[in-house]
Amino acid sequence: MTIAVQTYSRAQILQTRLQDEGIECYLSNVNLIHSVISGGVKVRVNEKDLDAALRVVEKVSELYRGKEEDLLDKKVQRILVPIDFSDYSVNACRYAVGLATKLGAEIKLMHVYYNPIINSMPLTDTYYYQVNMDEIIREIEVRAKRNIEKFYQDLQKQLAEEGISDVKLDYALQRGIASEEIIRKSEDYEPDVIIIGTRGAGAQENDLIGSVTAKVMEEAKVPLLVIPEDAKYEGIHTINILYVTDFDDSDYVSIKKLMRLMEPFSIRFYCMHVGDTDSSSWDKAKMNHMREKLAELGPSREVDCQIVEGDDPVKAVEAYIQEKRIDILSMVTHKQGLLARFFRPDMARKVLFHTNTPFLVFHAKD
């Protein structure tokens, strides 16, 4: 029975640890995967050794959590909110203010304005084109500066009208490609979470979740909270959170980050795995272990862990969201894996748009 799919070096370490515990272990796909390529080597044990093997897998996983886990007790202090002055940017700000008020965090608004790309042209036209382009860039910059200052002032006024005086608010203006500058800013500013708005059900068919949001989701190393345009902010009281797991090594760290982010709130925590109609004993053992770890992380939290049967993970998650009235959907993202299945164009809209559910993504270290 396969208990893990790892890089070659990590599979060897796990195999050694299992054998040290007297657990018979086999590696498969070793000859198919070059040792430096991520993923692919299967670690297998006999079904009778599942429980003991699970404990060894957890110990080995702890070796790779490294310094990241040591920082998890740090208080949430910074929230980065990219804006483009749209309605869904305003909606994202509502959520950011709600979080910042509870967490005592500061908010950094960020707007990236377009940087025109100068194409090659005949030499005789270059000077005239450059002069006009410089004027266009200056005009774009002036307009962007005016817009972000107004947005900032309007938000400050709104906070004052609502009696919110303890949220520090600032803004940054940057020229360039939006996704690249947001990722660069997140590395420089080091926010605890990025909150970004995206189009809702009225988006065009070819606009999956917005190219900027998709790129930031793929590359940013900090948690990203995606707020659909039609998600209704009605204050943050008791929050129903659904964490969808594929039993990834990054789950434990991600859930600790999630618990830290939601620490001031009353939450009901749901954890689900979408399995085949005949879920394996290994999946059940891993879910039982997940339940135990969640109890340690949040002993006072309401926690519900389930393996949901279904051939279509998106439909299963969508039904679960409706049944449990989920407020935030969360999971770990890889370039390959569970999230990739959600991002097929014909499926992603159902989860991200049709349910109008905010989507919290944690980046796994592949």
Overview of the structural elements:
- The chain has a ten-stranded mixed sheet, with helices on both faces. A three-stranded antiparallel sheet has the order 1-3-2, covered by helices on one side.
- The protein is elongated, with a radius of gyration of 23 Å.
- The chain has twelve helices and 13 strands.
- 45% of the residues lie in helices and 22% in strands.
- It has helices spanning 8-20, 50-63, 66-70, 87-103, 123-161, 178-189, 211-219, 251-261, 281-297, 313-324, 338-342, 345-354, and strands at residues 2-6, 25-28, 41-45, 78-82, 106-113, 169-175, 193-198, 224-228, 238-244, 266-275, 302-309, 328-333, 359-363.
- It folds into three domains: 2-64, Alpha-Beta Plaits (2-Layer Sandwich), CATH 3.30.70; 78-214, HUPs (Rossmann fold, 3-Layer(aba) Sandwich), CATH 3.40.50.620; 236-363, HUPs (Rossmann fold), CATH 3.40.50.
- By secondary structure, it is an alpha/beta fold.
- 33% of the residues are buried.
- The longest helix has 39 residues, at 123-161.
- Strand 10 (266-275), helix 9 (281-297) and strand 11 (302-309) form a beta-alpha-beta unit.
Task: Indicate the topology.
Blueprint (H helix, E strand, L loop, with lengths): L1 E5 L1 H13 L4 E4 L12 E5 L4 H14 L2 H5 L7 E5 L4 H17 L2 E8 L9 H39 L7 E7 L2 H12 L3 E6 L12 H9 L4 E5 L9 E7 L6 H11 L4 E10 L5 H17 L4 E8 L3 H12 L3 E6 L4 H5 L2 H10 L4 E5 L3
Parallel strand pairs: 4-5, 4-7, 5-6, 7-8, 9-10, 9-12, 10-11, 12-13
Antiparallel strand pairs: 1-3, 2-3, 8-13
